[in-house]
Structures are given as structure tokens and as C-alpha cells.
Amino acid sequence: MLKYTIRRILGMIPMLLLISIVVFLLAKAMPGDSLSGEIDPNNTDPEYIEDMRERLGYNDPLPVQYFNWISNFVQGDFGKSTRYKMPVSDLILEKLPNTVFLGVSSLLITYILAFSMGIIAGRKPYTIGDHIIGGLNYLGLAIPSFIAGVFAIYIFSFNLGWIPYSGSVDIRLTQGTFEYWMSRIHHVIMPAIVLGALSTASYTQFLRNDIIENSRKDFVRTARAKGTPTSKIYNVHILRNSIIPLVTFLGFDIATIISGAIITETIFTYPGIGQLFIDSVFNRDYPTLMAITMMLSVLTLAGNLVADILYGVVDPRIRLD
């Protein structure tokens, strides 16, 4: 397993290099640059804009621009945001805690719902309860997150007034107090439910189908023939084999914590990485845009690695040498 992990990490290096080239070229293929919107004779001198382009290296050949960017990126210098006039690393660190809090909250909701409904549907398949859970899953797959978010805001914020429709915390509260954290939970609960509940469907179906399949295998028949209690058969023998797909999904969810929240954060005006990514696209804030895209790429590759490692941890039969 250790040798496999080292090989995978080394194999990620050329992949990241290729991704960085694609990200850089796509950013440069966008019309204009981060200073284009400032060329207005009534507000800014065009000669000053051209001088800024020269100082920032926007007029250099593309290979030179890429080399300068990637060399600084490897050293932890992601550049300076042209929108917020601050280092991109500081900007990301400022927004990241909100996104992580939202992502972890949504994952808890996802796994709690998936395990509960998947076990119920798998232990009693083709019953009324199974059909109801299946209908809810298909409904969750059919509804886009932005539609669910808009309806949630309209019903629970505007009509009922139960939740705030924007922000991550009440700015009047002192940071670190009990009221502060309760306000954070109050602000994150609805985006987390929208993000987590809609992701539950596929997890539930995977668990349900695996429980049904494993319940028909020979080792389960043998356990029943020996008089093993039904609860032990499901909780020990069947469930342990059935959760393997869900455990491997946990690795991919590392990237989902950030990337999956882009639309949800925008709908709820939740100040996190997702909303920052959308703002950087509209404002042509290339340093921020490329840094976030590379971060998502690294998290995706790391998630694949974690998924493979967890697969071997859960099922020793498939451990890699």
C-alpha cells in the first residue's frame, strides 16, 4: 500500500503540470483581461492601463507568462487579486472556512440520510417504504440545486422567515461566542440541507442495491443456517461489504466540499470559495480564478488517491502491494 501511494503521488505531478497548462490557456483564451473593464477615458487613463499591463506581464509571450505563474504558484505565491487588491492566498484563506463549514455540514446530512434510507430500503426491498424512498431519490436527482435553493429561500426566508437568505453570520455578534456559532449554524443550515439532500439519492441507491445483492450471497445463507441473528447478519456481514462504495465516495467528496458549493453559495449569497470563483469569472480576476481552479484540481486528484486507499482499508482482500 505504501509503495502504491508513493507511485500515485509521483504520478500526480505530470497530471498537475498538464492541468496547469490547460487552466492557464483557458484563462488566457477569455476575452480581454482583468484590466479591460478599467479602460474608460472618464475614469482611468488608457496609457496607465497599458503601463499596468506591462508591469503585470500581460504583454509578455505566453510561455514566459506561464513559466512566471507556475514557478510562483509552486512557491505558494498565487499572485494578487486584481479585484480585491490583496494576495490571492489571503483571499482564499479568508473564504475557505465558510466553504469547509458548509461542505462538512452537507456531507453529514448526506451520509446520515443515505445510511438511514439505504438500510431501510435494502432490508425491506420492494415494499411501500422502499418505493417511497425511491421516489424521493428520483425527485432529488431531477431537481437542480439552483431550483431547490430558490424555492427554499422563497418559502423559508421570505414567507416563513425561519432562515436568513444571505451571509454566513450576524456581523453584530462577537466572534467565538456561543451566539456567534449559533448564528453560523443558523445561516448554514438551509444551504447545507439543499446541497446535502440533493446528493443523497445516488448514495442511497448504491447502498440499497448492495445490501440486496449481498443478502443473496452464500456467506449470508451460511450465517443464517448457523442461526446467526438477523440483526447481526445485516449489521456485521452485509453492511460491512455494502458500505465499501460509500467509503470510496468519501475521497471524491474532498473536492465536492468546494466545487459542489459553487452554485449553492451563489444562490444563498454565502461568502465562500464558490461565490469567490463566480465573482472572479465575472470580474476577470485571473490570478484568483486560476488559483481556485488549480486548488479544485489538486483536491480531485487527492480525492482519487484517498478513495483508493480507503478501498483497501475497508476491504483487506483488495489491498494493493
From TrEMBL:
GO biological process: transmembrane transport
Residue ranges crossing the lipid bilayer per the database entry: 100-120, 141-165, 185-207, 243-268, 288-314
Any one annotated GO CC term: plasma membrane
UniProt cross-references to Gene3D superfamilies, sorted A to Z: MetI-like (1.10.3720.10)
Family (UniProt): Belongs to the binding-protein-dependent transport system permease family.
Organism: Jeotgalibacillus soli
Pfam families the record matches: BPD_transp_1, BPD_transp_1_N
UniProt-listed InterPro entries: BPD_transp_1_N (IPR045621), MetI-like (IPR000515), MetI-like_sf (IPR035906)
Residue stretches making up the ABC transmembrane type-1 domain: 96-307
Full protein name: Peptide ABC transporter permease
